Amino acid sequence: MRDKGQLWMGGVLIFLGLLILLDNIFVNIDFGSLFWPLVFILVGVLIIVRPRMVSSETDVNIRLFGDTREMGEWDAHDAEYWSFIGDVKMDLREANVPAGETVVKLYGFIADLKIRLPEDVAVSVDSIALITDSKIFGKKMGGLLTPIDWKSDDYDGAKKKLNIEMVNFIGGVTLFRG
Q1: Which H/E stretch holds residue 25?
Q2: 9: which residues sit within 8 A by CB, 6+ positions away?
């Protein structure tokens, strides 16, 4: 996932750089009048098309503003969360976490993911953002354009696994047990 996130973010930055370069060298492009319509078109296309691009077992949750919470007794399963500004908070202590790997993806502009985990769930985190501020089991990680690629020691051999993938402009992940 980290490679996809870096490829996506790098592609966007290259595209924006090329637009600015074209404006400065060849033609007089009004960058502001071109940029925001392209952003809105891209986001609109993603909102319409993305749910059709994932498997039928994956829930796709799109919310422009506000927090999403998964707490109490619930069935954990593969999910994607899209949020312009908002957090996703999960408490897996009472959740039914299936054996195998459960994938949670968060895409957002300004978004955090906060997860409380039981002891029997191993976790892997792949995150890329312009600005990242994360705390994984008490260890602070992040910075400017600092990808996070972290895996618990028992991940490969664990029965229950949570794979977290994030792509944000500004964001972070907070994981804690108990």
Answers
A1: helix 2-25
A2: 128, 130, 167
For residues 147 and 95, the answer to whether their CB atoms sit within 8 Å is no
Please count the structural domains in the chain. 1
- Residue 77 tokens, joined: 């399963």
Domain of residue 113, residue span: 2-177
pLDDT digits (tens, 9 = 90+) for 48-97: 666 666 777 777 777 878 898 999 998 998 998 988 899 999 999 999 89
What pTM was computed for the model?
0.73
Name residues whose C-beta falls within 8 Å of residue 92's C-beta, 6 or more positions apart in sequence.
76, 115, 116, 117, 118, 121, 162
- The model's pLDDT over 11-40, given as tens digits with 9 standing for 90+, comes to 776 777 777 777 667 766 666 667 767 777
Q: Which residue has the tokens 């769930």?
A: 121
DSSP assignment of 33-65: HHHHHHHHHHHHHHHHHHHHHS-TTSEEEEEEE
